[in-house]
Amino acid sequence: MDTDMTNIFGIRAIIEAIESGSTINKIYLQKGLRGELFYKLDKLIKEKKLTTSMVPVEKLNRLSKNSNHQGAVAQISPVEFVDLEILIENTLQKSDSPLFLLLDQISDVRNFGAIIRTAECTGVNGIIIQKNGSAPVNAETIKTSAGAAFKVPICKVDHIKDAVFMLQASEIKTVAATEKTEDSIFDINFKQPTAIIMGSEHRGVNPSILKMVDSKAKLPLLGEIASLNVSVACGAFLYETVRQRTKTK
């Protein structure tokens, strides 16, 4: 399967793509755009809460490979995102102990891809990301995931808080990975329905989210370095879950 990100360009073409329900990953706009057609596009972007970036014309020329882009280029995601409410409902019908993974604005595509790959290998039922501030699902993400991005359902939400509320309402325990706790990962019961929350590379899990979760857990660090790469830490959390769920009496 071709995993290159599809770029479409031209304001009218992007409007039609949005209205047709295409999964738009990101829209690049030239600074200073004006006009009736642009205002229509801008209205759609705000209604659909799409991710945008204001860029110089030179970047748009590179993305579109010509100058006939009218100041707008959109990237269509190679994977289809799923609705979180539907995913939770369908998963609960199939599993007594579902496992979800929430990524709080992880921005590096290689970390994202590695996490998706580990999630597929550990039986994660769905990955939840935030619309803004998260790494895109692009060709590099898919390559790093070894194709797992096509196998694990991925949801986009307006804010990770929305997902936490929804999961808790479905009696799924939320566990945040953070050093700001005395509780070890080995003290957590991962056998029950669980959603693990991993924070961004530089900030960790947002403090406002830490206040909401059911549990917090940290990994024991025996060396001098104070933290692990997020994809490595995520793997440790997921495989502790696997260990607990597959442990024989």
Architecture overview:
The protein is of the alpha/beta class. It folds into two domains: 6-76, 2-Layer Sandwich (60s Ribosomal Protein L30, Chain: A), CATH 3.30.1330.30; 84-246, SPOUT methyltransferase, trefoil knot domain (Alpha/beta knot). It contains nine helices and ten strands. The protein has a six-stranded parallel sheet, with helices on both faces. A four-stranded mixed sheet has the order 1-4-2-3, sandwiched between helices. α5 (109-121) runs parallel beside α9 (230-246). The longest helix has 17 residues, at 230-246. The radius of gyration is 20 Å and the shape is elongated. The protein starts with 5 loop residues before the first strand and ends with a helix.
